Amino acid sequence: MVTATTTGYGDITPLTSNVRNLVKYQILISIILMGLIVSAMSNLMGIIIRRSTRRK
Fold this sequence. Notes:
The chain is an all-alpha fold. It has helices at 2-5, 17-55.
């Protein structure tokens, strides 16, 4: 969460409620994108492993 939003250390904090809401959406989108990236990488690794075992 800290890596995705850079708001976890307290160095930079959202002060107004509008900015806090924006950060909430940023966190949600970051979590979704991280899941999609991990899923895509996992699928790619599965394809690579299947292709390499077929050749042997």
